[in-house]
Specification:
The chain has helices spanning about 5-15, 20-35, 195-205, 240-255, 285-295, 300-305, 355-365, 385-395, 415-430; strands at about 35-40, 50-55, 60-65, 75-85, 90-100, 100-110, 125-130, 140-145, 180, 210-220, 225, 230-235, 260-265, 310-315, 315-320, 340-345, 370-375, 395-400, 405, 415. The chain has about 425 residues and is of the alpha/beta class. It folds into 2 domains: about 5-85 and about 235-430, Zn peptidases (Aminopeptidase), CATH 3.40.630.10; about 90-220, Aminopeptidase i, Domain 2 (Roll). Strands 1-2-3-13-4-14-18-16-17 form a 9-stranded mixed sheet, with helices on both faces. Strand 16 (about 340-345), helix 7 (about 355-365) and strand 17 (about 370-375) form a beta-alpha-beta unit. The relative contact order is 0.18. The mean pLDDT is about 95. The protein binds zinc ion. Zinc ion binds near residues 240 and 315.
């Protein structure tokens, strides 16, 4: 694949991946097309050398692996992980609000969103809905994506708030409520269940059958190429679909004769990862252990695999912003388009392990992949990734890499077009070499 093909693949994942469930479903489609077989935790696994497998965990997390054609015990595990979630707004239960002629939805903030970037955008909603079924312990689960934008959070006019350009703090309960319709005139102000009805119509079910849902609002803008030579990609959800797509591509193209290549896609990174489908769960190590158990190897052999295994935590990094260069570390300056970031922080907010970093540098050098080292300014911090958390459950050499990004956690972010190819090639080489 060339540079533009990698970029186009990313943009089609952005279009399909409108909720963590839809990201996992889009990954699943790519894996199935490449001949991966679905497994389930609740079933026996009979794995074979040369096999390609995946399993979905609670809808929004997924693990996939390939076993080398000549896999034998003692071969290494190479693992790459990325997150499927992104900051935004989530719809609460009983969300309908009707006041002063407008219909609105009660929402809450998910993750560290830059709130004002959600104003005046065409918003849509996606996620999963649980429906009544004949079996109490197994409600029917349906995914929904409205696709067409139908909500927006309008700004307050500058004429009414003359101080707006001095900066505005938005109240998370009062000032982020989207409008999605007009109420009937002349009626009493009483919220009906207009959203539930709208959802039921979309799903072609009775509204009484809808029990619950996990629905998020997303920026319905498509991604675009910008710059005089299309050197930028401006798009929603680049954090972290750039990494998800690079890991999928790496797994499909980086097959080894020996060893196991494992990919993990976790939900809930933006809220701290410590959930059953987050990186702070035993999911990843349980999958690795089951691979060996299926080959008739016991727990001792599983623990032995930690010795030479390696984890690549793949997530976006901060690029130097030309308007705020003084916010950047004075000696580590990451610029869009100049290659992937290898992130280091002595606080371990990024998994910092000089052995793993050195391996990554040698992979990049062997393949001619540009890279830049990232470090925070000493008087500021800049977030964390799932690397350190995942490696506390699967304690192996770990390194944090990803594309540099501007406007991280805005409803629309900016990256260098060339960096997607660099990241996909780096993950592919990590699996293949
Ligand atoms: Zn991220």
């Amino acid at each position: 694949m060339n540079r533009m093909e990698h970029a186009e693949k990313l943009l089609s994942l952005v279009e399909e991946g409108t909720s963590p469930f839809h990201v996992a479903a889009s990954v699943e489609r790519q894996l199935k097309k490449a001949g991966f077989q679905r497994l389930a935790m609740g079933q026996d696994w009979s794995l074979e050398n040369g096999g390609r497998y995946y399993l979905v965990h609670n809808g929004s997390s997924l693990a996939a692996f390939t076993i080398g054609k000549r896999f034998a015990f003692g071969d290494t595990f190479r693992i790459a992980a990325a997150h499927t979630d992104f900051p935004g707004l989530r719809v609460k239960p009983s969300p309908e609000m009707e006041k002063d002629g407008y219909r609105q939805l009660n929402v809450e903030v998910y993750g560290g969103a830059i709130l004002n970037t959600w104003l005046d955008r065409p918003l849509s909603a996606a996620g999963r809905v649980t429906l009544r079924s004949g079996d109490i312990f197994h409600p029917e689960i349906r995914y929904v994506d409205f696709e067409k934008p139908f909500l927006t959070i309008p700004n307050l006019a500058i004429h009414i708030n003359k101080e707006v350009n001095k900066g505005v703090e938005l109240n998370r309960q009062k000032e982020l409520l989207p409008v999605l319709g007009l109420g009937p005139s002349g009626e009493e102000e009483k919220a009906g269940d207009f959203f539930l009805e709208y959802l039921a119509r979309k799903l072609r079910v009775e509204k009484e059958d809808i029990l619950d849902y996990e629905l998020g609002l997303y920026n319905a803008d498509a991604g675009d190429f910008l710059g005089m030579s299309e050197e930028f990609i401006s798009s929603p959800r680049l954090d972290n679909l750039t990494s998800v797509q690079a890991v999928v591509t790496g797994l499909l193209e980086g097959e080894r004769e020996r060893g196991v290549n494992l990919a993990a896609f976790f939900d809930h990174e933006e809220i701290g990862s410590r959930t059953k489908q987050g990186a702070g769960s035993v999911f990843l190590s349980a999958v690795a252990e089951r691979i060996l158990l299926s080959y008739g190897r016991g727990r001792e052999k599983f623990l032995e695999t930690f010795a030479d295994a390696m984890l690549l935590s793949v997530d976006v990094g901060h690029a130097l912003h030309p308007n705020y260069a003084d916010k950047n570390d004075p000696t580590n300056k990451n610029v869009l388009g100049r290659g992937i970031c290898i992130k280091e922080a002595s606080t371990q907010s990024y998994a910092t392990d000089s052995e793993a970093v050195a391996i990554m540098q040698q992979i990049c050098e062997a393949e001619g992949i540009p890279y830049q080292k990232f470090a925070n300014r000493s008087d500021g911090t800049s977030g964390s990734t799932l690397g350190s958390i995942a490696s506390s459950f699967y304690p192996v050499k770990t390194v944090d890499i990803g594309v540099p990004l501007l406007a991280m956690h805005s409803s629309r972010e900016l990256m260098g077009t060339a960096d997607q190819e660099s990241l996909a090639r780096a993950v592919t080489a990590f699996y293949r070499l």
